[in-house]
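Box 3.1. Reading complex inputs
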Amino acid sequence: MMVLVFWLLGVSLIVLQTTLLQYLPMWLGRPDFIFIFVAFVAYRFAWIPGLFLVFTLGWILDVVAGIQLGIYPLMCLVTLTGLKLVTNKSPIKETTYQIPLLGGSYFLVQMFMYFVCSLSSPDMLPAWSWGEPLQRTVLVMIAAIPLFLICNTLYVYLQRRQLRGKLPRRRRNTLF
Amino acid sequence: MRKQTKNNQKEPLFASFRVVFLIVLVALVGLLLLASLLGGRFGTPHQLTLDFMGPLQSAVTRSVSGIATLKNDYIALWNVRAENKRLRLLVDKYLTELGEYREGYSNYLHFEELLAFKEKLYFQPLAARVVGKEPAFWYQTIVVDLGRKDDVLEGMIALAPAGVVGQVIHTSEHYSKILLANAPSSAIDAMIQKNRIRGILKGVGEKGFVLHYVLKNADVEVGDEIVTAGIGGVFPAGIPLGYVSKVYKKRRGMFQEIEVAPHVDFQKLEFVLIDPTDRRQILDSMDLSTKR
């Protein structure tokens, strides 16, 4: 149930990212909601559902927006793996560090993706500049605050429902 | 106890299943990723994914476009409203201007008529603007903006291009009062233009005039022109007064009763021309003054 709901949320975010956000003016920026979502999945979900969610969403994003097939799933998987490895049994997983860690990982992933793309198709890439990735990173960190809040609220709500469902139900009229 | 043992047996089985599942999943993901990265072909899974996402994107895009259109239409409506307001103001302004121009043109035609009449006159008349009208029914007077300062004297006659207007009865320094020819107290020596038959034209207010003292055997028809007779020295002869509108021939009496419609529209008088000839002096010299 939890995975399905979050998968649908992820799909909605992709739709939102590829349609609605395109209407926003350029100066306002377009934060990468999918990356934020992947980071949230990495923080909250276990390996198997995390892999499933991240790969399928990366795949969809790849189909919808990618030029070079496989880049987006790879980016999502790298992000998931990296964040999961860093935060596994570590105090960095705490809420205080989540946003800075997200920012750092986003910046590194951008560098990594640039490196990968420069290997596969160097002619298609513009020259690397530090300013733009930094700007995007700041934007992602700002956008992550409300999105994390929404996702967290939904996660906690679904988790509570799951737990309530697992609790043994008290039978009526058992005493008398 | 037995239950706990059973659970303990289940847990490693479940853990091993999870590990296997994870391995399978990783292998599958890796395979797909490699196929995508290395193959680079937009295969069936990609096409299916695109077919799945397409309608969702289309729905959102259409909704957003619809909302944007609605917003633009609404803003356009605001602009249209503002434009409409502005245009209405413009229309009002232009209508006012048009009214002024019409009035100007009408005045021009009227002045042209007056000028033509003035040029025909044997004297140099004084043009006076009507500034007031007597509201009472029986007096029928008007006030003009020329007075003694402009050499207007009591007894002078006032004319309009259409005919006789009346006579100056009171003057002040700057204004004069004119008794209209159709006033009940007014009586003018008149004649039927075609056969020179004379009578006394009496004013009957808004109904115009009545021509008295015309014998029954006189040839009078509706439409006959009535002009001043020139007797008495007040009005020169031949100035139009009106035309016969009705003729009554009673059994008894010597005279017929003739209704005369004035040529001058007394309700619409704006300008009058005053003959500056001092009629009183003439009357005095003729020894016909009313003072006697």
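In summary: The domain at 126-286 of chain B is CATH 2.40.10.340 (Thrombin, subunit H).
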